[in-house]
Design brief:
The chain is about 65% helix and about 0% strand. By secondary structure, it is mainly alpha-helical.
Length: about 100
Amino acid sequence: MSEIFSSQNIQQQLAKRIRVLRVSRGWSQEVLAELAGLHRNYIGHVERAEVNIGLTNLAKIAHAFEVPVHELLKMEDLDMPGYLSRTEEAAAFYLCA
């Protein structure tokens, strides 16, 4: 499996996205936990990529942020060496065609 899509890397990127969204809203982990119906400690574990988050809890967190689940899973703007965004992939495709 590609290193980009390793379980650990995906968890770290998801953790980073959740933390960035939370901080950008000025929320504490406690506020996010309350809005998502989860425990504050669990949110901390998620943000440190210490747990493999289930779909139900991912949906609860997305609902708290009022975003679709796929927003939390977007990989276009992640800091991954050698990873092209969809825009860059499309541009490369058309340049090579």
